[in-house]
Known about the structure:
By secondary structure, the protein is mainly alpha-helical.
Amino acid sequence: MSAIRLLVLGAVRQHGRAHGYQVRGDLEYWGAHEWSHAKPGSIYHALKQMAKQGLLHAHEIAPSTAGGPPRTEYEVTPRGTEEYFALLREALVAYDQRGDMKTAALGFMVDLPRAEAVALFKERSRRIEAWRASVTEHYVPEGGPAGLGHIGEIMNMWVHTADSEAAWTRGLVERLENGAYTFAGEGEPFVGVLAEGEENPYATGERHPQDDR
């Protein structure tokens, strides 16, 4: 799975139509450049690739204020919507040691109905427990990780990470079941994207040749 695909599809979808610089601004606003590979070049490349794959529709509009070629706005296609929700659902249940997909999916979980999100997080909890059981059965010696020398601390870290995430997931399920946040079909969603022209306090300020296209 690719976090950048999920992030870009989700950002474009929240706007309805968005040009590349808007998408870049949203991802920087969410801090995605810190916890994923959402760098300017990757964002613009993902937009163009997904347009070629039929996941996004590219609209050419008036030239940018900086001049040059017409600016391109992107819109998620029906195929792109299918891809978006497939990536989102899988990211919410999958358990591994990568944090970018999980973090991206959390940012979009409210695009699902509440009951489905709860079910997916319960499945995630079940998978964490299964993963932990397989690790402790085969890799952690009976006397603790020290039996494998300092290498045992790798498994020790994995198990502690799994325990922490399992506890967090159970807490999240409880909060969602008690009505936290606004999910699909429940009313006006939380607005987590920048409006056109709104200043981004978290912008990196790094310029890229595609910023005005």
